[in-house]
Amino acid sequence: MMETYNVLESEDIPQVAMDAMNDVHREELAIVNQLNTAILANKPANITLLCEDWLAHTEAHFSKENGMMEKYNFPAYHCHHAEHVEALQGLRDIINAWNEDEDLEGLTVYVQITWPKWYIDHISTMDVVTSAFIKQSI
Prior knowledge:
Largest sheet: none
Helix content: over 70%
Shape: elongated
Strand content: under 5%
Number of helices: 4
Low-confidence stretches: none
Number of strands: 0
């Protein structure tokens, strides 16, 4: 059994008004923490699989959130959606770099520094406001 090395703990993630969103945030964190463990153990096959899982989860996460914002006419949809587009492109870029030349250093910096900071910032700003708006609209 590999020792795990978490980039964030569940309690580090700000809670939002909708339980379903909190669940998705915890699921994504679990994937990223597994990926960080694989990175530190230098397990390229595991890293590749976990990157695929992470990308698929993030695409589904953002798509569902974007759909909810559209359905309930969230006023700041364009701003929130734009953050999703930018973050998804950044994730695709870092995973493509990994797939092309196994850029472990770039992936490590993204997983351990870039993503956790963005994730906490995004949830504590965009998702907190969005979830409160949608919850009161349902």
